[in-house]
Structure prediction request, 224 residues.
Amino acid sequence: MAGHKNRLLFRKEGRGVYISHLDLMALFQRAFLRAGVAIWQTRGYNRHSFVSLPLPLSVGYSSQCELLEFTLESDTPLEEIPARLNATLPEGIVVERCYEAETPVKRLAAIDWTVGLEYDNGTPEGALPALEAFFTQESCVIQKPSKKSKKGYTELDLIPMVYQWDAAAEDCAVNLHLRLMAQNPGLNPAVLVNTLAQQRPALTPDFARYHRNEIYGADGGIFR
Prediction:
């Protein structure tokens, strides 16, 4: 609907995971233009179509629940927009739904992740007990760089930011299922993996995979 904030739900997978946050915004700006869908533009000398990604995703991460916000300047039916955009988008970026945004982004509370820790020489012995000890410790305080702090960093306790976790071991991998704080502050699962490697070097993976499964609101329900 024209004049109202709308959202896209889209997947980022395959070759699409290597598109950066800024490039992804530019990609969607061009996609709307090519699809003939008029959206709100910034004012001023260098005008451009305005889109917003509430939860920027790190390069290399895949996701099945990415959100993009925009405002229509035409009465294009929302149900037509996914197909029109998908016809212009590259491999790995697929729009699933388009709908009017009702719940504000500030209500977004948690992200469900799958993290794969891969080991070239087999899963380390005692990996699961070591992971349990890591996630059940009373606190795990790290220093995070901050330009706003006089010290140049702020301290974060990671443990309260992990709402749920479980782990399953395979021959050459450990698969973690995590539900983490989404914002203010958000917890990137790579921070957990890096901290785990520092505290338990034997669990340092040769490669790590990160995938967003779902996002949740403050009420515990799926956020859309």
